Each structure stands twice: as structure tokens, then as C-alpha cells.
Amino acid sequence: MAIRILLVDDHPMVRKGLRLFLKTKEDMEIVGEASNGKEAVEEMERLQPDVVLMDLVMPEMDGVEATRKMKEAHPGVKVVVLTSFSDQDHVLPAIRAGAEGYQLKEIEADELAETIRAAHQGQTHLHPRAAGHLVHQFTSGVSREEKNGPDVLTRREREVLRLITAGKSNKEIAAELVIAEKTVKTHVSSILGKLELQDRTQAAIHAIKQGWFDYRKE
């Protein structure tokens, strides 16, 4: 069954471009459009889409408030932010409002399609710059009193998770810990399973929120 998508952007040309691209994807269906946050909330209620592709800066109601209202009314709806802004003043409020994805309008079209598919499956996809601001925001606010080690993980899994959260690739982790890359992949799978998370991004955000590692000392 196709992913039912509601397009939300105050620029008609942006909506047109998105519509033309998404129509080429057999697993996606555009069920409606909205030009501002207020209209988006109304259309979401009427159309019940699977995923809302949400701009942030719009008249009448911005994308953050629209996301918040949608999530309050229908927690199951997935929201992917598509915006030109990657600063923490935009990223953090959108994630707190409940957005599953945060991408910039500069990304490749196929990457946007993957983000939509991931959101539909309940996974988190963030543009690297947006993720970087999110990491900085959480790490700068972690106090020593809040730190409790992830006891569910083994010592080696904690080392791997620390390096994941520091932005290291599997290859870089393998080199730093002097283990095989295949072993790193096994540890990553175990970490995600134990923490009941879907991907590396979620694992990094989870570790940061819990205050498990202090990257100001890295």
C-alpha cells in the first residue's frame, strides 16, 4: 500500500516540485496540499495521511505549532520537516514537537524519499547539520549529576556507542578499537536491540539525552 503524503509549504513552486518528484515513486501517493500551518492541521484531520511533509516558516501558523497540534490529535501521524533552516533554534523545537525527520531543501530528491519511508516506519532521519546542532544542544546541557551509565550494555558496547555518538563511522570505530569492522556491526546491532531503537541516529540521540557521555572532554 502506498504511503499517503500531505504536502505543506507556503510556496506553490516548492509544492509543485515535490509533487512532480513524489509522483514518480510507486510507493508514495500525494493525498493533499496545504499552504500554511492552520490549513495543514485541517487537511490532516480530513485526509488522515501517513506522512506530512512540513515546511517550518509559514503564515497563520508555523510548522512547529502545526506539528504539535497534529501529534496531540493523532500521535500516529508521521511528520518530516523540510526547510531551509538548520540552526538549533529551528531544529530543537521541531524535534520536541514530535517530528520524525528533519531535512533541508538542498538534499537530493532520492534522499528525501528515503527519509519519508523511514518516518513511515517510525525511524528518525536527520540532516547531518541538524543532527549536529541537536547533539550540541544536549551535550552542552548535561550535568554530572545526571550521568548514569548504560548498564544494559557491555563495556565494549558502551565504547562503540560512545564513538557512534561522537559521529564515527563503523570503519573509524574499528580502527580506534582495533577490532574488525564486522565485529563493530555486530555490536551496533546488539546496541540497537538492547535499547529498542531503530538506527544509529536514534542511539546517539538517546545516549545524549541520558547524559551517558561528556563530549566536552573529547
UniProtKB/TrEMBL annotation:
4-aspartylphosphate-modified residues are: 55
Tell me which residues make up the HTH luxR-type domain.
146-211
Please provide the Gene Ontology terms (biological process) for this protein.
Answer: phosphorelay signal transduction system; regulation of DNA-templated transcription
As given in the record, the signal peptide range reads none
Where's the Response regulatory domain?
4-120
| Gene Ontology MF: a single term | DNA binding
- State if DNA-binding is listed as a keyword: yes
Q: What's in the keyword line of the UniProt record? A: DNA-binding, Phosphoprotein, Transcription, Transcription regulation
**InterPro entries tied to this protein:** CheY-like_superfamily, NreC/VraR/RcsB-like_REC, Sig_transdc_resp-reg_C-effctor, Sig_transdc_resp-reg_receiver, Tscrpt_reg_LuxR_C, WalR-like
What CDD domains would the database entry show? LuxR_C_like, REC_NarL-like
- Please state what the protein is called: LuxR family two component transcriptional regulator
